[in-house]
Amino acid sequence: MTGKSKGVWACLVICLFLSGCQASGPKPLYDRLGGDMMMSAIVDDFVDRACGDPRVNFTRKGTSHEWIPTPDSVDVLKTHLVEYFTMLSGGSHDYEGKDMRTAHAGMEISNAEFDAIKDDLRRSLEKYDEPPAETDELLTLVESTRKDIVEVK
Questions:
Q1: DSSP letters of 20-57?
Q2: CB count in 10 Å sphere of residue 96
Q3: Measured by CB atoms within 10 angstroms of the end CB, which terminus of the chain is less buried, N or C?
Q4: For the domain that residue 39 is a member of, what is the CATH number?
C-alpha cells in the first residue's frame, strides 16, 4: 500500500466511524432507565409508595374526585403510568390515556402534593439504583407537567 492509499483508507475509516457515531447518538432516557422491565418495576413501586404517602393524598380524599383504589383500578393506573413515562422518556409505547390537564382536572392538587409525589418517584428511582443524571432528567420531565396538574397554589 502506498502512502497515498494509506491516507485514503485512514480517511475512509475515520469518516465511517464518525458517521456511525453521529447516526446512533445518545440512547433515549427510556433505554437508559432500563426499558420495559425497569419502567414497570419503577411504576409499580412508585404507585404503591405514593398510595401510602399521606402527603400526596393519592385517593383525593375530601375532593369531588375521590378515588377508591381497587386491584383493577390500580392496575389500570399503573398501565397508564408506564405508557406515559415511556412516552415522556422517549420509549416506543403509545400513551392512550388523557392529557394531564384533563386527567387531573378538579382533583385540587396542590404544589405541596405535587412535590411529595415527585419525591416518591425519586425514591422509587433510587430504590432501583437509577443514576442521578437519569433520575433528574425524568423528574425534570415530570416537573414540566406541573402547570397542567396543580390547581391549588
A1: HHHHH-SPPHHHHHTHHHHHHHHHHHHHHHHHT-TTT-
A2: 10
A3: C
A4: 1.10.490.10
Domain count, the chain: 1
Three-class secondary structure of residue 7 per DSSP: helix
Query: Which CA distances in Å does 21 have to 26, 27, 31, 51?
Result: 9, 12, 17, 43
Q: What are the pLDDT tens digits along the chain (153 aa)? A: 555 444 434 443 333 343 444 446 789 999 999 999 999 999 999 999 999 999 999 999 999 999 999 999 999 999 999 999 999 999 987 888 899 999 999 999 999 999 999 999 999 999 999 999 999 999 999 999 999 999 997
Q: Does the residue 19 lie in any domain?
A: no
